[in-house]
From TrEMBL:
Residue ranges of every copy of the NAD(P)-binding domain listed in the record: 8-185
Alphabetized InterPro entries for the sequence: NAD(P)-bd_dom (IPR016040), NAD(P)-bd_dom_sf (IPR036291)
Protein name as annotated: NAD-dependent dehydratase
PANTHER family, per the entry: FLAVIN REDUCTASE-RELATED, UPF0659 PROTEIN YMR090W
Signal peptide limits: none
């Protein structure tokens, strides 16, 4: 069983990711949280936790034997450089130092060309910079860029393209399912793609991506 470190575990999408991994026979989630009071939420469910702050030293997050990292943290627009950009870069560095097998990054639609954005430009620039840093790290990575997040139910279906060329919505449940599926070793390796609501099964969409860009 592989240990998966989830940054941003206490967030809305992060909790869904942790729950999915906790139901898996393949993965053991380790929830990375920055506040002591957030630990109890996961411990009460028997989920391993680690205290680490993306604005400080993240190396304690790797005191357990971590196999893979899933970055789902976000500052909510308040500290985009400190958390979304520099925090992500710190975690990439720590992952590299600890020889992790894969790094899955939750990014955002629009992060490819942040200069074209009419709103959230600073956020998208921070995500872009973090994505580029991960790409150049030498780590095995997958970068997932979803459209606007909703709280709709899981459909297990998406539209996936390297570049969609349009905006759209997608449920946090489908994003969480996509991210956790990308933890598979050779699935969507060293790929960046965009997703919104769609009609293709998540597994099928990711398989097609891996085959097309092998």
């Amino acid at each position: 069983m592989e240990n998966i470190l989830i940054a941003g575990a206490h967030g809305t999408t992060g909790k869904k990711i942790v729950n999915l991994l906790n139901q898996s026979s393949q993965y053991n989630p380790i929830a990375m949280v920055r506040k002591e009071e957030q630990v109890d939420y996961f411990k009460s469910q028997g989920i391993d936790t680690v205290l680490a702050d993306l604005e400080k030293d993240v190396s304690p997050a790797f005191d357990n034997s971590i196999d893979k990292v899933l970055f789902a943290a976000g500052s909510g627009g308040k500290k985009v450089v400190e958390v979304d950009q520099e925090g992500a870069k710190k975690l990439v560095d720590a992952a590299k130092n600890n020889g992790i097998k894969k790094f899955v990054m939750l990014s955002s639609l629009g992060a490819e060309n942040p200069e074209e954005a009419t709103e959230l430009k600073e956020y998208l620039q921070a995500k872009h910079n973090a994505d580029e840093y991960l790409k150049s790290s030498g780590l095995n990575y997958t970068i997932v860029r979803p459209g606007s997040l909703t709280n709709d139910s899981l459909t297990n279906h998406i539209t996936l393209e390297k570049s969609l060329g349009k905006q759209g919505e997608i449920s946090r449940n489908d994003v969480a399912m996509t991210l956790t599926t990308c933890l598979t070793d050779n699935l969507a390796s060293n790929q960046t793609f965009e997703i919104i609501n769609g009609d293709t099964l998540i597994n099928e969409a990711l398989d097609n991506l891996s085959v097309t860009h092998a």
